[in-house]
Design goal:
Elements (H helix, E strand, L loop, with lengths): L1 H5 L4 H20 L15 H10 L2 H19 L4 H25 L11 H29 L5 H4 L3 H23 L4 H24 L10 H18 L3 E8 L2 H8 L1 H18 L5 E6 L2 E7 L3 H17 L2 E3 L2 E3 L3 E7 L7 H17 L5 E2 L18
Parallel strand pairs: 6-7
Antiparallel strand pairs: 1-3, 1-6, 2-3, 4-5
Helix pairs in contact: 2-3, 2-4, 2-9, 3-4, 3-5, 3-8, 4-5, 5-6, 6-8, 11-12, 12-13
């Protein structure tokens, strides 16, 4: 309300805001048939939010995400309202802060269209601030919802940094175009739409490979990845190990606390697996409460150590539920390529038998299948040298 009262209405600013929101609406409508992946997704709408923050008074930056988030909710994918509210708040606060900084450094924001190096530098710095604040707010919320997740999972990876740079460049470029002539938005719109559709298509393809609850590879995608690693190991002669991990008495968790708590346990276990494994290890959810891990380059001792570390870490993990903490244990079966099998089916069978043995022995343990020694030749065997 304070911002609104202190902002002097100007038709040029209102028209610019309407034009930028219209471009954002066109992008949303153009990608509506593709849909949007669940969870945190990237949509390049910052190409329209950033010009609002740079060129217009801060109050416009607060309202811009509300307009487009409502359109996303109505036209693309309806999700729980509080997520849209939080996204709007995070983007609005980040945009408002960037707007304050840029307007504090530049007397006339519209002079950005003149292409002065100093003004562009200030615009880039403000855009970086917008990105940092937005990511920080989302990361804090994500980590608060799942305290067991590693910060690196909710902050940046190489792909996120690249997308942030793309959004920054688009936002500053569109801002300069707006300052020159609003009609130039017609030329900026098609490439942004094409980039957005390409990005969403890639995200949807990635979503089709992942398990919706845990974010790990689903069974089909894991088998494809595992087959590729096994072929590579055969060609190079490297070692390779496979783990099957099962949450002990998982049905009791669902019966005692409900399936929503069971889902939280699955997410917690998946997060622990990701945090304790190498980037090139292949980890997936095989179904129900079972997880599978492929360890390229691991021998039997290393595989056992990894499985034991996972067992201990997950055993110490606690999922807060109301006034209590839910704890679970895991059992694991380990199989080694060329010792317990030469293809994926043989390795899965051997690891599954080892897992069954671990459960028979009392659960919360790691087992390795027994390897039968080669038959000894009898003294009168004609094959004996």
């Amino acid at each position: 309300m304070t911002f609104s009262a202190s902002t002097v209405f100007e038709w040029r600013e209102a028209l610019t805001f309407a034009a930028l929101m219209g471009c954002g609406a066109v992008c949303i409508e153009a990608s509506r048939r593709l849909g949007m992946p669940a969870g945190v997704s990237r949509d390049l709408l910052s190409a329209w939010w950033l010009p609002v923050a740079l060129l217009l008074p801060p109050v416009y930056a607060l309202f811009a995400p509300i307009v487009l988030q409502i359109l996303l909710q109505v036209r693309v994918r309806a999700t729980v309202v509080y997520r849209r509210v939080f996204s709007s708040a995070a983007i609005g606060l980040a945009g408002c802060s960037a707007s304050f900084v840029f307007h504090g450094l530049v007397a006339d924001p519209w002079a950005l269209s003149q292409g002065g190096g100093r003004l562009i530098l200030f615009a880039v710095a403000s855009a970086v601030l917008f990105s940092l604040l937005n990511i920080a707010l989302i990361a804090i919320a994500a980590h608060t919802a799942n305290p067991d997740s590693a910060w690196r999972e909710v902050l940046w990876d190489r792909e996120s940094v690249l997308l942030d740079v793309v959004e920054l460049c688009l936002g500053v470029t569109v801002s300069i175009s707006c300052g020159l002539n609003l009609g130039l938005l017609i030329l900026a719109l098609p490439p942004v739409v094409l980039l957005q559709r390409s990005l969403l298509h890639a995200q949807l393809q990635a979503a089709a490979r992942t398990d919706a609850k845990t974010g790990l590879l689903n069974a089909a995608a894991w088998q494809r990845e595992a087959d590729t690693e096994i072929v590579r190991a055969r060609r190079t002669g490297d070692t390779l190990a496979l783990l099957i991990i099962d949450i002990d008495h998982f049905k009791r968790v669902n019966d005692a606390h409900g399936h929503l708590v069971g889902d939280q346990v699955l997410v917690g276990v998946a997060s622990m697996l990701r945090s304790q494994l190498r980037d090139y290890d292949v980890v997936g959810r095989f179904g129900g409460e079972e997880f599978v891990v492929l360890l390229p380059g691991a021998d039997i001792d290393e595989a056992r150590q990894v499985a034991e570390r996972l067992r201990v870490r997950i055993g110490h993990m606690a999922i807060p539920v109301d006034d209590t903490l839910v704890r679970v244990t895991i059992s694991a079966g380990v199989a080694l390529m060329s010792v317990h099998g030469d293809d994926l089916i043989d390795l899965l069978t051997a690891a599954d038998l080892a897992l069954y043995r671990a459960k028979e022995l009392g659960r919360d343990r790691v087992c390795i299948p027994a390897v039968q020694p080669p038959p000894r030749s009898l003294p009168n065997d004609p094959s004996t040298p």
